[in-house]
Write a structure and sequence with these properties.
The complex is a heterodimer of chains A (about 675) and B (about 120).
Chain A: H1 7-16, H2 44-47, H3 55-65, E1 88-90, E2 107-109, H4 110-121, H5 125-136, H6 146-150, E3 159-160, E4 166-167, H7 175-191, E5 203-207, E6 218-222, H8 226-234, H9 241-244, H10 258-270, H11 281-288, E7 304-307, E8 311-316, E9 319-324, E10 328-332, H12 334-342, E11 358-361, E12 365-370, E13 373-378, E14 382-387, H13 391-398, E15 422-425, E16 429-434, E17 438-443, H14 447-454, E18 470-473, E19 477-482, E20 485-490, E21 494-498, H15 500-508, E22 524-527, E23 531-535, E24 539-544, E25 548-553, H16 557-564, E26 588-592, E27 595-600, E28 604-609, H17 613-620, E29 636-638, E30 641-646, E31 649-654, E32 659-664
Antiparallel strand pairs in A: 1-2, 3-4, 5-6, 7-8, 8-9, 9-10, 11-12, 12-13, 13-14, 15-16, 16-17, 18-19, 19-20, 20-21, 22-23, 23-24, 24-25, 26-27, 27-28, 29-30, 30-31, 31-32
Helix pairs in contact in A: 3-4, 4-7, 5-10, 7-8
Chain B: E1 22-23, E2 25-32, E3 37-44, E4 52-59, E5 62-69, E6 71-72, E7 76-79, E8 84-85, E9 93-102, E10 106-109, E11 113-117
Parallel strand pairs in B: 1-10
Antiparallel strand pairs in B: 2-3, 3-7, 3-8, 4-5, 4-9, 6-7, 9-10, 9-11
Classes of the chains: A alpha+beta (about 675), B mainly beta (about 120).
Chain lengths: ~675, ~120
């Protein structure tokens, strides 16, 4: 005999103390109508288990249900009281058909007779006992009238006479016939489902009540299995909420009780009729979580096999349980279960669960471990998954999971980015990973992230981030490194991109701490010879392929002169050095493609042409340190040549002789 | 004998008529137009195996019929066996279907149910 929860302990007690009457299951373990699942009332394993009890066990069970029979309550000699535990009947020969053959003419106790029929028809002894009870209360009555035996299973006795007495067809009348034909009919439903109303795997409109004048309507029931279909074919009504909420009591005018009472009596006597198989991984998990009283609640389906890796699963009112040899048995529920289903369940990237849901995390969040990843849930973000071993999850872990700056994931991880990259958004920012750059994150809607986005994210000039956002710069500024450049931000200047030679030159100038300060624009492109330039707080950096990147200081005399001559489009072209100081009287100089600008406070800014005879003559006399001092004009055309004045004199160049004449003052 | 357990009254008996056939209730419990028309109905309050069930489908003045034997259950008769109309006898659209039951002693017809044939 299988172990039965509920009665296993009771049997042991009876064996020790035969006189002790063992009561009904305690209230805490009583079956509840509210756990009734219309589509899955009883499992096939329970229903068709014809070795569920021996005749001795049935007898013992009947004696416990009615310890004391009351023949004294008989209404007279025509209706003697015989309780089921004492009842005997003679078998009638039945040929083999839906059931195996039964030999006639044997006088058997009710318990023996139930066992014989159960084994011949392949129906559980427990099912037959509960059917007897649901139809005519014979199992528990201590003073049953004879008519109850005549129509014991309610089989084909549609006519009722005075006082509820039955007028059964003679073919079906009597206790043996009733038990036999009921069991045979249960078998018939399974062997010939096409002949009957209710079938496993189909959805039917089942009436709440058989009295059409009450307009009780129907309930749509998706019948899960053959055993539940058999119950509805036997009793074609489904209990309504009032019936299920009433315990064993009465509901309302639309309540029926047959299938409810089957569930309740079965549950109280033998354990829930739809409980998971004893000893299965899923069944053990269900028991460990508290059975129908735990959060998984009552079963809604059998345990299905055929999953990947030989796995199984079962649906419950409160969630699902999955088992495989490699992962063990674990339960999923709610948003995490839905998110897991959306990934393809055990066939998806996460595989089977390997823990139950862990609760009590930040903002009431939860998470659950799967074979290859985790699902994290919070009210604000819903359930999202991360992949174990992924660069994205690794970064999230290093930042402190949901307690760190990233908070909970707000999307799953998505792939398909350039160079095989992936991304995942979190509450606090977005992580991008690629093989070349690793995993780094940008803060949600930060100026730096927006600046990156404006460049086209990883597809733009910046490529993937190669650092997280770093703070601590001058004026509480921040910056972030990308494959193709940097983004710098400060409150005063906003966030701007620097790349390539301009970025290098800015770095060499001391970045935001140098004379240029923070960038205040991105690079402006499309200038002469493919040149570009970028604005900073203190000046500009100009780049062309021929000249490289060099800066000029805003407000400086040098830049002012260059501007007046037409910037890079004028005779000076692009700067080829930065501005250098340290000259006599605080002077500065800067070389350009077309010449060199010198500035001092007393002379102002003037330029000498690169490699010109005048510049060479000035240089030969020691530049600004010689007798000529600083230039006080640019080179000017004069008759027959050019002339340039200096603090200490004049240099004239004569075209005809290509010679210079220096005149000191 | 009140043990506090609410039970269903014995199934509502339908006595045979003195003459002719007594009325019985016929209720459609499922109807599908997914692959032809397939209907299942329940005849309540009788248990016999000698009745005939007939499915009638109507649409736009066209009537198609299929019949099969009723199968007795515990306290009802199932009209399920053979109540199918193959797709090649149907056009797409809404069909009104009923199931009638007739035996020597009893007769009844269900309310109409609408079935959409794709």
């Amino acid at each position: 005999m299988r172990r039965h929860r509920g009665i296993a302990a009771a049997v042991a007690v009876v064996a020790m103390l035969a006189a002790v009457v063992v009561g009904e299951a305690s209230a805490a373990n009583a079956a509840r109508g509210t756990d009734f699942v219309p589509g899955y009332i009883v499992s096939d394993a329970e229903f068709f288990d014809s070795s569920a009890m021996t005749s001795a066990q049935i007898q013992e069970f009947l004696q416990r249900r009615v310890p004391t029979c009351r023949p004294d309550l008989s209404t007279g000699p025509s209706d003697p009281i015989v309780c089921l535990k004492d009842y005997r009947s003679t078998t009638v020969t039945k040929a083999a058909g839906l059931c195996q053959a039964i030999e006639g003419g044997r006088s058997l106790s009710a318990a023996e007779l139930i066992d014989v029929v159960a084994r011949a028809c392949g129906i559980s002894q427990e099912v037959l006992l509960v059917t007897l009870q649901k139809e005519t209360s014979l199992v528990t009555l201590n003073a049953p009238s004879q008519w109850r035996y005549q129509r014991a299973m309610g089989y084909a006795c549609p006519d009722t006479g005075p006082g509820g007495s039955a007028q059964c067809s003679a073919d079906y009348e009597g206790f043996f016939n009733q038990v036999y034909f009921a069991a045979r009919q249960y078998r018939n439903y399974v062997s010939n489902p096409q002949f009957f109303n209710f079938r496993a795997g189909q959805t039917s409109q089942i009436q709440l009540h058989n009295n059409a004048s009450r307009n009780c309507g129907t309930r749509s029931v998706a019948i899960v299995n053959a055993a539940t279909a058999a119950l509805y074919n036997y009793t074609p009504y489904v209990p309504n909420a009032a019936s299920l909420n009433a315990g064993y009591g009465s509901g309302d005018t639309c309540s029926t009780y047959g299938n409810r009472n089957f569930y309740l009596f079965y549950g109280d006597w033998f354990g829930l009729p739809n409980r998971p198989s004893d000893g299965s991984g899923v069944g053990n998990l269900w028991l460990a979580l508290g059975g129908e009283n735990g959060w998984l609640g009552a079963p809604r389906s059998p345990e299905y096999s055929g999953l990947r890796d030989g796995g199984t699963w079962q649906q419950f009112t409160g969630g699902m349980a999955h088992w495989s040899a490699a992962s063990g048995a674990w339960a999923t529920r709610g948003s995490i279960a839905s998110a897991w289903n959306a990934t393809g369940s055990e066939n998806g990237p996460l595989g089977f669960p390997t823990s139950n849901e862990h609760t009590g995390f930040r903002d009431g969040g939860t998470w659950q471990q799967f074979q290859r990843g985790k699902i994290h849930w919070s009210n604000a973000t819903g359930a999202q998954w991360t992949l174990d071993g992924s660069g994205v999850q690794g970064l999230w872990a290093r930042t402190g999971w949901e307690n760190g700056a990233l908070g909970y994931p707000a999307t799953q991880e998505y792939g398909g980015l350039r160079n095989g990259g992936v991304w995942q958004r979190f509450q606090g920012g977005t992580i991008h990973w690629s093989a070349a750059s690793g995993a780094h994150w940008t803060k949600s809607n930060s100026s730096i992230q927006n600046a990156w986005a404006a460049q086209g994210w990883e597809n733009g000039v910046l490529g993937y981030p190669t650092s997280d956002e770093l703070g601590g710069l001058r004026g509480a500024g921040a910056w972030q490194q990308f494959q193709g450049g940097m983004v710098h931000w400060s409150a005063a200047t906003g966030a701007w991109v620097t790349t390539g030679s301009i970025a290098s030159t800015w770095g060499a100038s001391g970045s935001e701490n140098g004379p240029l300060g923070y960038p205040t624009s991105n690079a402006n492109t499309g200038f002469r010879d493919g040149g570009s330039w970028q604005q900073f707080q203190g000046g500009k950096i100009h780049w062309s392929n021929a000249s490289g990147a060099n800066w000029t200081l805003d407000g400086s005399g040098v830049q002012g002169l260059w501007a007046r001559t037409g910037w890079e489009n004028g005779p000076l072209g692009y700067p080829t050095t930065q501005e250098y100081g340290g000259l006599r009287e605080g002077g500065v100089w800067q070389r350009f493609q077309g010449g060199t600008v010198h500035w001092s406070a007393t002379s102002g800014a003037h330029w000498t042409k690169a490699g010109s005879s005048i510049q060479n003559a000035w240089a030969a006399r020691g530049w600004e340190n010689g007798a000529l001092g600083y230039p006080t004009t640019d080179e000017q055309p004069v008759t027959g040549g050019t002339e340039q004045r200096f603090q200490g004199g004049t240099i004239r160049w004569t075209a005809a002789t290509n010679s210079v004449q220096v005149t000191l003052r | 004998m009140d043990d506090g357990v609410a039970v269903d009254p014995p199934s509502t008996p339908v006595p045979p008529a003195e003459k002719g056939q007594a009325d019985v209730s016929v209720v459609i419990t499922s109807a599908s137009g997914a692959d032809g028309i397939s209907v299942v109905a329940l005849v309540e309050g009788i248990a016999e195996d000698d009745g005939l069930c007939t499915l009638t489908a109507d649409s736009s003045g066209i009537e198609v019929v299929a019949s099969g034997p009723g199968h007795g259950s515990v306290s009802s008769v199932s009209c399920a066996d053979g109540l199918e109309i193959p797709l090649d006898q149907l056009h797409s659209g809404d069909w009104s279907v009923t199931v009638s039951y007739e035996s020597d002693a009893y007769a009844g017809v269900s309310a109409a149910v609408s079935v959409e044939v794709a």
